Amino acid sequence: MSIAVMSCILTVAILGSGIFLYVRWQRSRDEQARITTFVNGLQNLSPEQLRTSADELSKRPRMARRVLPRVMGRARGRATPAERLAAVRFLARFAGDRPDVADALYGLRRNADEGVAAEAAAALAAITPRDAAAARLASCLDAPAQPAVVDVVIDELLKLDSTGRAALEARMPLLSPDRRMWVVGLVMDRRPADHRQWLELFAADPDADVRKRVLDELLAADVQAQRRAGEAELP
Question: How far apart are CA 24 and CA 9, in angstroms?
Answer without folding.
Answer: 22
